[in-house]
Amino acid sequence: MAKIFIEIFGCSANLADSEIIMGKLNQEGHTISGSLEDSDVAIVLTCTVKTPTEVKICKRLRELNGLGKPLIVAGCMPKVEAELVREVAPKASMVGPNNFLNIIEVLNDTLRGKRIEAIDGGPIDKVFQNRVRKNPTIHIAPISTGCLGYCSYCIVKYARGRLHSFPIQGIVADAKRAIREGCKEIWVTAEDTASYDWNGYKLPDVLRNLCKIEGKFYIRVGMMTPNHAKQILEDLIKVYESEKIFKFLHLPVQSGNDEILEKMRRNYTVDDFREIVYEFRRKIPGLSLSTDIICGFPGETEDQFRDSLHLIDEVKPDVLNISRFWPRPGTEAEKMEGQIHGRETKRRSREMSKLWRRISKEKGFKWIGWEGEALIDEVGEVGEAIGRNCSYKTIVLKENLPLGVFVKVKVTGSGIGYLKAVRV
Ligand code: SF4
What's the gap in Å between 192 CA and the centre of ligand 1? Predict the structure, then answer.
C-alpha cells in the first residue's frame, strides 16, 4: 500500500475531483499523506484557466519531476496542454479531467515505473463516489461537467468538454450521505450550474430536492452564466426563497460593454445581466452578489473599459473576481487583433480593484451592528474562526471555534471582503 501526497490547484470542480480520487485511493487501502517527503507518489490536480496559475504549476511540476519520485499529473492541463506537461515533467504519468476514475490502474502502473497517459475518456458521472473531504463541514456537489458555451477566451471548455449533467438521484443521495456524515454546507458546483439539464430536470429541481433533505445546513449555488440563468429565472428565484439556500448569487458578467461581450461570445447583454441582478435583489432580501470581470480583452477601448467600471459601480457586488486578460493557447481570443500590452491590462485591473475596494468598504460598513447566526466553516491562517451568515458574508471572529457550529454573532467592523464580529 502506498502513501500518497496530493496537491490541488484551481476551482471547486478540481477540489471535488481530488476528494473522489482520495476516496478511491482510501478504498484500495492507500493512505493520503500530508507530507511530500514521507510519501511514495505525488498526484497534482492542475488548472489551466489563467497563465500565471499555469506558470506556477509548471514550476511546481518541474520541482516534483526533479525529485525522481513517481508523479501523476491530473486536472485540466493533461487534456489541453499535454505537450507542456511532457516538457516540464517528462517522467510523469497523466490522467485527464474526465478519466480520473481510472486512478488506481494509473497509480499501480506508475508505482511499477511505467509512464502512463490516460488523458481521454468520459464523460463520467461524479455521483455515488466515496469521498475524502478536505473540509469535513463542506460537501462539494458537482452537478455536471463541461458547458454549452463557446466563450472566445476560455480554455476550460476544451478541458471539460460539452455539458454532461449528472443524475439528480445521485446528487441528492450524495448530499444526504454528506449531511448524515456531519456536513453543514453543500456547494452545488459546475462550470455553469444554470445549464444543468438531466432528463428535463433543471437547476431549480436539484435545489428543491436538496432543500427537502432533513437537517440544518446551507446550500451555496455555484456560478452560472447569465444567458442560462435568464431561462430559469422565475423558478430559480422561487427556490432561492428557501432558508436552506445562502442568499448568494455568483453571476460572472466579464464586461460592462455589449460589443466586448459579443467578441467574448458570452450570449447575453449587459441589460440581461442587470435584469437578473435587479429581479433577484427585488425578491430576495439580503442577497449577496458575486461577479467576475476581465480587464483588457483584445480590442477593449478605454471607453469600453469605463463601461465595465460604471457597471460595477452601479451594481456594487459583494464579491468581485478581477482578471487581466491572458491569451490562452488554442482559444479564439488568443488570435484576435488588438491584443493589449500587459502594462495596460495591469493598469486596468488595478483601477478595477481600487473601485471594488471602495465598494467593499462602503458595503461592509452597512453591516456593522448586524446580529444573527453564522456557520463556522473555515479556520483562518492564525487559527481564527471564519463563518458565513445567510447572505454568505465572510465573518471573522477572533477566537477558535470548531468547524460546523452555528453561533450567534454581532458585526463590529469590516475589512475588504469580510466582516469582523464577536459572539453574543
Ligand atoms: S461557459 Fe464559457 S467561460 Fe464558462 S466554462 Fe464554458 S466556455 Fe468557459
Answer: 7
